[in-house]
User: Fold this.
Amino acid sequence: MGPPSDDGQGPVTEAEKAFNRMTTEYYWGSTWTRPGLDLPSRSICTMAALAALGRETQLASHIKGALNVGLNREEIVEVFVHATFYCGLPFTRSAIDLANRIFQSQ
Assistant:
């Protein structure tokens, strides 16, 4: 999907280093490589879930990843439009605004 987000700071503690390893091994290594869904489909599911949860930091990373796996801007915004009645208008507006900021920065 692309490089992990980098906030300019590396892990501060050994616990955070362990957390990062677990994330890489299980989340990226197991969940994202399972059979049954292609990467664009997984991106759609993930963006919808993160939008519904209001997790903008993680959503930003996944919007960039969705572009890297072949989704276009219209498809990404359509994910949020479709999710409106499931996650609520405020979450959708925030997700679309975030996507637009990312699109403009590229």
